[in-house]
Design goal:
By secondary structure, this protein is of the alpha+beta class. The chain is built from 2 helices and 8 strands, in the order H-H-E-E-E-E-E-E-E-E.
């Protein structure tokens, strides 16, 4: 009985310490900006622009993306267009026509359908490399 009283006292003494671990108002989901919730997932790394065309096949959770980001990882690749192939067999041709400076990115908004694969068409003479991410 005495052991139970000691354990109960210790448990009750720990409650105020736990409650005071978060002083003030804790941030909750209502404070998170909608744009910040979508974390970028790398779909392809350091793809050389000299390939001219590269297709990335998506599977699982990666298929549920609403935005894609092309970022110059090295040099200044020239991205001509991006073709998004959806799971329902439809495709969307998105002209980009941009030469990306090192570290510069281009974000393209998708229409919310499941994505099966993404084809990036580059100017093979531009050199450089890019990464492809999705959110």
């Amino acid at each position: 009985m005495r052991r139970l009283a000691i354990l109960t006292s210790l448990a009750l003494a720990a409650i105020p310490l736990t409650a005071s671990a978060y002083p003030g108002d804790r941030p909750g989901p209502q404070r998170v900006d909608r744009q910040d919730r979508g974390r970028w997932t790398t779909l392809s790394k350091m793809t050389p622009a000299r390939q001219g065309r590269d297709t990335v096949r998506l599977s699982g959770r990666d298929q549920n993306i609403n935005r894609i980001r092309l970022e110059a990882a090295r040099g200044a690749p020239r991205i001509q267009r991006v073709i998004v192939h959806y799971a329902n067999r439809a495709s969307q041709d998105m002209p980009v026509n941009a030469q990306l400076s090192p570290g510069q990115d281009q974000v393209l908004q998708l229409d919310g359908r499941r994505v099966e694969r993404i084809t990036v068409v580059t100017d093979a003479r531009s050199g450089g490399a890019y990464t492809l991410s999705g959110a």
